[in-house]
Amino acid sequence: MDWKPEKPPTAKEIAAKFRDSIARGVYPPGGQLPGAKGLAKHLGVGLMTVQSAYKQLAEDGLVFGRQGSGTYVLDPKKGDPTAQQTALGLRELQDQLTHVTSQLSELHDRIERLEAERSRRPDENQ
């Protein structure tokens, strides 16, 4: 992997990077991800951080680990979505969640401004 971030990444960031790589087809079905020990050394993180990232990918249904052999991109059964399709779907969901979160934040700000304006006005019903 040629990715070398400026600061040591979190497990969440590592998992996101691999989700994106799988979605782009960098790691095809049956393809092996980099070894956890070597990747940890390359990224300047602990082995547990990489293992946690790989666990997240496995929970997402993108990869599976083979004891003593490595971590591989799932090769789906006929009719099941590929890991690439699943990763694309997860990325789309993440984009949608970011958009909704932004909209909620804007709505929250508008409500606070309206409440502040209302509290500054004398009650018109008195």
From TrEMBL:
GO molecular function ontology, one term from the record: DNA binding
PROSITE patterns membership: HTH_GNTR (PS50949)
Secreted as UniProt keyword: no
SMART domains: HTH_GNTR (SM00345)
Keywords for this protein: Coiled coil, DNA-binding, Transcription, Transcription regulation
Coiled-coil residue windows: 90-117
Entries under Pfam families matching the protein: GntR
HTH gntR-type domain: residues covered: 8-76
PANTHER family: MANNOSYL-D-GLYCERATE TRANSPORT/METABOLISM SYSTEM REPRESSOR MNGR-RELATED, TRANSCRIPTIONAL REGULATOR PHNF-RELATED
Designated name of the protein: GntR family transcriptional regulator
Originating organism: Streptomyces ficellus
